[in-house]
Records
---
Amino acid sequence: MADTYLLADAEPLLARARAGDQTALEELYRAFETPVYNLARRFCRTAEDAEDVLQETFFEVCRSLKHYRGEGSLWGWIRTIAASKALMRLRRNRYRETEALEDDLHVGPRADQHLRMDLEAAFERLPPLSRAVVWLHDVEGYTHEEIAGMMGKTVSFSKSQLARAHTRLRRWLGEETAG
Amino acid sequence: MTHLGMEQLLQLREPGLEPGGAAAREHVEACPQCRAELDRLHQRVARLRALPALRPGHNRWPAVRARLAAHARRRLLRFASVGGLGLAASIALLLMVRDLAHPASVAGSELSSAIARSHELERTLDSFKSDQRVTDGWTDRMAGELEDRIALVDRQLEMAQLMDPESSETALLRLWRERVGLLDALVDVHLTRASRIGL
């Protein structure tokens, strides 16, 4: 989404940014601020965490710009950095340790059976790692192999997280059918 | 009839066919319930993709810029460390020359201690390698402000040496002490950050 905005001016802007031009770096930040934050916010529990990820991502982007050779889209490159920083934040916050507890809280069948939510609220309710897998796979289009690589997990882990997440979403959205 | 599970339905959305994929596809074509389930899955993913973009509530660019500037200063300091040692050496030489002409002063020995302490704190800061670690907005702001002030003191020290070689020991001592105080505070900031994020 950000690429289409930036595509026409990307090369001259990148050249200026690589030379350390502050205006160009800020322009780059402004162009990708929202998609990076959106991705981070879908992973993180709080807006503050997501803003920290935004900050970490652009520090890394500005610092590593000289390594970006234009192979693949600029957004693809920035997005990979953002996803990696967001996953690092999840690990730092030790979400995994609380996931088992959250699973119990979130999938209590009786509580959920008659509860209909909108998709955004249901997605928000998923455990952090499940949210990250769903977002990376279904929205950003990463493969299970890529997600497994980013998370340091197996492909089966990514696939099972996705399946469990969709099972929960279907239930919480009241989409289950009899039989 | 056994209907398809979520993993099998998701597999049907992947490119390529895994073992058992052909049978699952045949089943979906023949089973209205699983076809409806697959449609709902497609719709759910389409709705996820259509969720409105969330926007940050705060402008984080100033913090990014400050951190980049601090990073650049650190690199410059590392690069210029030989030059920094040269500056310290020239001050030491100046003190020695003065000592030959005048009896050793208290300020002279205090100045040597301050310079040594300053180098020691620089080494401590290097050991933090803060640019490799996760920081937060508070640390960035505080560290940025302190590094700006240290850079200012460094400029004053350089100017004192270049423009006024006869700078008094007291004036130099004041600047080096200020530098040590700021470095001390910077070390504190990094220690606080480390304790906040449990490093």
---
Amino acid sequence: MTRPPATTGRPRTRHLAAGTVLLAALAAGSLFVGVSGLTPAGVLDGRPEEVRVLLESRLPRLLAVLLAGTAMSVAGLIMMHITGNRFVSPATAGTNESAAFGVLVATLFAGGQALFVKMSVAVLFALVGTFFFMWILRRLTFRDMILVPLVGLMFGAVVSAATMFVAYRADLLQTLGAWTSGDFSGVLRGRYELLWIAGAVTVLGYLYADRFTVAGMGRTFAVNLGVRYDRVVNTGLVLTAVITAVVVSTVGEIPFVSLIVPNLVTLVLGDNLRHALPATALAGALFVLVCDIAGRLIRFPYEIPVSTVIGVVGSVVFLTLLLRGGKRMGLR
Amino acid sequence: MIEIRDVTKRYDGTTVLDRVSLTIEPGGVTSVIGPNGAGKSTLLSIVSRLAPADGGTVTVDGLDVAATPGEVLARRLAVLRQENHMPVRLTVRELVAFGRFPHSGGRLTPADLALVDEAIAYFELEPLADRHLDQLSGGQRQRAYVAMVLCQDTDYVLLDEPLNNLDMRHAVQMMRRVRRMADDYGKTVVLVMHDINFASCHSDTIIAMKDGAVAAQGPTARMMTPEVLGPVYGLDIDVHELGGSRIGVYFS
Amino acid sequence: MNLTNMLNAPKAGIRTPEAVRRERRVLLVLAGLAVAAVAGFCFIGLVGNWEYALGIRTRKVAAMVVVGTAIAVSSVLFQTVTGNLILTPGIMGFDQLFVLVQTLIVFLFGALALTSADPRLLFAGQVAAMVLFAGGLYRSLFGRDRKDLFVLVLAGIVFGTLFGSLSSLAARLINPNDFVVLQDSLFAGFNQVDPSLLGLSAVVVAATAVWTARLSSRLDVVALGRDYALNLGVGHASVVNQALVVVAVLVSVATALVGPLTFLGLLAANLARQLTGAFRHGLLLPAAALLSVVVLAGGQTLLERVFGMNTALSVIINFAGGAYFIALLIRETRR
């Protein structure tokens, strides 16, 4: 990365603990936000109706939010390291869009198949899309800090257009809308469990953290330290593609999270992945949870999909980083 | 005559120009010299109304530059800044022809065309006239820009570091042409100069600036002395008479 | 954009005879293609109750001409005043901004305002709001301190995303059950053009085209950059302000008629710059407008009548436009 922030280092344990407590409180609170009246007292009394709502809907939803938020943020962090560019993430490299394309194709050719099949196809597409993007990158004569994510965004737009084209021809536009806008309102028990795969992959990412950090310093640096650069980069790309595809095929595209959460975290903590990763995971879960709760409350009893809320918040944060980030982001 | 009265300019609280007052008489070449950050370019921008002043007035032949309509001033005074990035792709001739815009808007008369050709010939740009600017070397491009300013046919010509990016040969050629613009066409040329010796060899008057104020002003011979130059640059500068010019030596 | 006037005024001596011939040729070819595309759209495969079908087709193709011209002219103008040749109002989400303004009016004043108010007055209000927003955005992004070209483009794109998200948020707040509204605004449609708006739009576009034509030589100077424009005595701020108003009006008209068409402007403006090799707006503007009509009418004709597809043209334009944009970005780095 271009420039280490002024304050680098280990996240204070105190801050991590405070974040965890906050997350736990919000998580507990989120269980009782919804149309069917669920009260802590009722659950503790073991009223069957309320326990059923809790176990069938609220708890799965909470877990989905936490898993998706964590996994997407960590995927973003990994991608930002292996591409050596702060603004490259699954949200700005066409990975999200490629995964959505995959889900559509799977639906077309294997209509009623299990979610697992859709997910596998999505993983495949996300991989192809991501590696294609990396191929375009290698074609660029110079890798401008901003140009790379710009190309990525446009690549995503092109993939989206292709997806739309297919969906339009197959009359699947309405269905497509469901994946392109991430939403947790449909999460029920039995329909989110694949997200645990994303969780597992995230843990894998943590085990690889040091190597990603080294890769982030560039090929020469990595080779000098005896790290097999290409292999680390490819591993990272596969991890991010899998995480993205799992999230897109279960809850839909969640914009910006993978971009802004790692950026905000590393702005404070610096780029050592082993330190930044747990904080990013925590912050990602917190961010998506807050946005999901907000989406549920803004127009109660109706729900605003989390992707819409994050679309607004995320673009404002990203614009601030871009236009006011200045030196700290290595922009000027 | 360019009259600068009490001109002040601030950027983010720092005073770049502090109540600068100057008179530049018509005719001849005047060079503005001084260390980095002295406020030379800022002063030039204000005189040419590219930047507004925070206080004070500038008049050119009695016209207040802040109040005179742009097109009126554009027929009296032409300016060329240092950095010349052009977003559009133009040929040399197209660029030079823009110099006629203040006189005839978008529609060129035969007289305008004659002037365009003259300016191109004056800067020996004929072989390059139909080439695009991005196909030229830095020195050629600089010549094309100055040709445009000449083609504007104004009494006053303001150039900010015209020798930027030029090698020695092209720099000398540029200065000779600038000199002749004053001698042959009777223009008043004001230059912001980095190199004191080029300023010495080709200008009639020198204005030395330091810390946002005028440190000294006078005929070149009187300005090119260790006593004047030393304090301006904070450097010991020997001045020698060489080939009829006064040369400052400060390299060791 | 007086075509004959422009063809007859070669400004001898400034451009080489080859350049002049090339410009004329490109313009004539484009004009021919545009006429062919319009005629093709109207007449190919016309059977049965042809009078009725022709009426519908004429209305559609008229909308294409109006919208195509509006988008092309606004894109060229925007590129000129920002000095940024890879950004257009469409990519920056100005059309989304218009949708947002529309939604916000409903949000603030209720649906009643939309139905009871004089539509012309309402449109004027929306355009006024657009002018304000667009002006503010211009100042915040393209103001005095120069930022990197790519930062501006990226910021522009993210602004587009922001406007899009804000309008879907507002739409959901107004009417949580009605997601169809959202779906509709995603696709540009020439099928549901409001005939009562079409006439008004044509008049507005024609008027702004005349206005732009009168600005055209000063736009040439503004395209050189602020310092050059000031040196040459052109009121830079005044021309920029006028151009921004024109851009806001044209984007509003186009979006009100058919909805967002993100990449059409980029294709039309940049292809026109490439094909003509010209910087003069007297040539650039009509060339871009013609190209835009060719893309819309020609593309729709090919899709519907030749390939028998009922795919929204906007999807294909976005596909091609996105790819073209990447190519432009890559070319920009090779400079």
